[in-house]
Amino acid sequence: MSAAPERVDAPVLELVDVRKSFGPIEILHGIDFALHAGEVHALIGENGAGKSTIMKILGGFLAPTSGAVRLDGKPAPYASGAQAEAVGVVVIHQEFNLAPDLTVTENIFLGRELGGLFLDHRAMRAGTQALLDELDSPIRPDSRIRDLPVSDRQMVEIAKALARKARVLIMDEPSAVLTHKEVEVLFRQIERLRAQGVALLYTSHRLEEITRLADRVTVLRDGAVVRQAGRGELTEDGMATAMVGRKLEDIYPPKRHHAGAVALEVRGFSVPPLVRDISFTLRRGEVLGISGLVGSGRTELAEGLVGLRAATGEILRHGVPVHVGSVREAAARGMAYLTEDRKEHGLLLDKNLTDNLTLSTLARFGTVFIDSGREEAALTRAIGEFDIRAPRRDMKVGNLSGGNQQKLLLAKTMLGDPEVVIIDEPTRGIDVGTKSQIYAFIDALAAEGRSVIVISSDMPEILGLSDRVLVMRHGRIAGELYGERLTENAVVRLVMGTNEQTSGSAAHV
Amino acid sequence: MSDTTRPDTARADLAKQAAAAPSLTARLPGLSALGPLLALILLVALGAYLNENFLSAGNVTNVLARSAFIGMIAVGMTFVITSGGLDLSVGSMAAFIAGVMILAMNALLPTMGVGVPLILAGMAIALGAGLLAGLGNGLLVTKARIEPFIVTLGTMGIFRSLVTWLADGGTISLDFAVRQLYRPVYYSGLFGIAWPIIVFALVAIAGQIAMRHTRFGRYCEAIGSNDKVALYSAVNVERIRLMTYVLLGLLVGLATVMYVPRLGSASGTTGMLWELEAIAAVIIGGTALKGGYGRVWGTVIGVLILSLIDNILILADLVSPYLNGTIQGVIIVLAVVLQRSKSSA
Ligand SMILES: Nc1ncnc2c1ncn2[C@@H]1O[C@H](COP(=O)(O)OP(=O)(O)OP(=O)(O)O)[C@@H](O)[C@H]1O
Ligand SMILES: [Mg+2]
């Protein structure tokens, strides 16, 4: 049986009636799906729809419960990721598969080191440098993965996959943590590979990327294929509707115009070595966006404000200077921070939902003994309020889909009932339906009189959510935009550092 | 570049098993947890089969009372290991505390006379010394940020040499009259149950509750699981870590309080290898050596397994008791292998 009628060439890699269960719960219900040479196939669907699971099955990391994986029409001759790589089926994972204590070079050549008895360090280093140059990346081959920001880690992951000379390249949300510029580089590489006849599978929650890249789109809902379409057959709206199963309204809430008293004031705040002399105010009921390139110091500033990094300068709450030396002190001052790195800093992946939800507010759940009844009730409430979709309540958080992990992290942060919330990349890896829920949620926080700082690399998000935007560049505030002057063009100019005069005239483009 | 295209069938099979394993173990979560308990029951059955005296009150009391010292220490060790730490110094620490306690009691004897106050003073000194020793380890780990393995390897040598020095290479003995007064703390008990067993049981129950139902236990697991996440979640990581070492020090002090009346002396070989037995008991009981998951009741079972092996070998006369270490070693390795297959699932 051949796949879609308009294709004449045989698929390279194919799933035939694949089902997958974890324990008693079936996650994939009979998936048929094919990848062709020289084609980018996009797989889209809500959080938890089963995209990553399909990709892991294709890449040999999971065995299907029933059904077949076929490579070149024959049963796939691999039973592990390493074997799949050996026959040219390479996966870029949503969770990074890098050894944190090894260098970039060591990771890229892991398992296929060059040299005989002794390693040929120079050749490997040169190979790594060549790959990174191809990706326009300033990452140094000798950096330890542990010391790199998430976006750089993603670039290393991509470099590693490119080094594998894939026939089939499977990419699970590679762009989620990348900056605009890095995404462009990634797309150029994808287009190059397509031209070379590589079969590509791509997923992303940014639908404009799908429109631009995909030759074919498969829409997944609750573990079943609900729609397949060729290039140009589906609009972004159509994709979103197919994914969610209902029509989506405007995903951004209407702007509020009623900021109250100053809740937080920051004066001359520095977080060595990068962040210098930051001053700003934040009012009650206000959403303040912070934009800037990765590496501009946004996360460092946020971490300094909640006592996670040594900092100097003044923080005033309601006009009173306060000392914030630790996350505990920040919490006591009504301030909370939601990290951008949910896997390393946000969640205990080996623990269940309850343990994670209540970790930062455990003192509220009983004086001497933890009241597990109250904990369970809090989880029930969080699951409802944040629409967390977990097959089982007692499962490890690491087995939740990426988007549901993010929702749990949001629930955990809000459990402390903070007045000032700093949210770093609120919707990274989150589907459109859930995004609009989270936006509504942020809006509701502001409407309740709380103050929210949103750090985001997603331009529409910053513009859609914020009352006011601070742009950071090289650790300093490059400018502040609000009202009429808050436009995409103006923000981009400040982010990139183009001079002020042009930004004024560009405001009405 | 891609010269590593060598299909490796052994790896393939392993990977297949790994892929198939999760569904199986996910459905039977209790089984791996019950492993140590089953092993214990088997050992008891084996002992009863081999020797009719095995289940006699005398033998049971003997086994349990001997387990009590390592047991109390192992309960404390469970918290240290769960939060991602390790303490190699506990055996030497016990010897050192015993030495200090005996010397102090002998020194106080002329002023206080033989009596309960002297015994109480000795106990307080032992607990205080344990607290300080644990505090020292803990501060070196948390404030000076030295690897726990290195810190406690160092203090292990220090305590051991200090007690040898205090004893001048020989033995420190408690005054005879005081020893007579103190003896019942090891040899007598309540309702026929020896004091060390009672104290051990209380420590174990309190430990189990603390691990499962208090913030302290939850934080220990969180820190051992990922200390960065704990830090970002407003957990006072340093203080919890410090507390685990202090708690362990206190429990070593308590174990010494129960141990000194048994022999009434301390020397350079007191508490030899206790650290290894305590760590082994923790691991056999199912606590993850890399931290993140602790099981106090498992530790208790681990301690009992280790001392039962000893006891059965002596009673049964099947193989030489000198092979005790071999059998214990095999069991420890087996326990870790079981843990490994569990965590890869
Ligand atoms: N090892 C596992 N055990 C139990 N359930 C699992 C496991 N792995 C995945 N799941 C469940 O399978 C479902 C599909 O997850 P998957 O990661 O494939 O979703 P996804 O489409 O990639 O979502 P996202 O967009 O959030 O990344 C989820 O409900 C998830 O919780
Ligand atoms: Mg996914």
TrEMBL record, chain A:
Keywords: ATP-binding, Cell membrane, Membrane, Nucleotide-binding, Repeat, Sugar transport, Translocase, Transport
Entry membrane topology: Peripheral membrane protein
Positions of the ABC transporter domain: 13-247, 246-499
Keyword Oxidoreductase: no
Highest rank taxon of the organism: Bacteria
Keyword tRNA-binding: no
GO MF entries: ATP binding; ATP hydrolysis activity
Pfam families: ABC_tran
SMART domains per UniProt: AAA
GO cellular component terms listed in the entry, alphabetical order: plasma membrane
Entry's localization field: Cell membrane
Gene3D superfamilies tied to this protein: P-loop containing nucleotide triphosphate hydrolases
Family, similarity comment: Belongs to the ABC transporter superfamily.
Name under which the protein is recorded: Monosaccharide ABC transporter ATP-binding protein (CUT2 family)
Lineage, top ranks: Bacteria, Pseudomonadati, Pseudomonadota, Alphaproteobacteria, Hyphomicrobiales
UniProtKB/TrEMBL annotation, chain B:
Primary site of residence: membrane
Keyword Membrane: yes
Keywords recorded for this protein, A-Z: Cell membrane, Membrane, Transmembrane, Transmembrane helix
Subcellular location: Cell membrane
Membrane topology per record: Multi-pass membrane protein
Entry's Gene Ontology molecular function annotations: transmembrane transporter activity
Transmembrane region(s): 31-51, 63-81, 88-109, 115-136, 148-167, 187-209, 242-260, 272-289, 296-316, 322-338
Keyword match Cell membrane: yes
Any one GO cellular component localisation term in the record: plasma membrane
Protein name, as recorded: Monosaccharide ABC transporter membrane protein (CUT2 family)
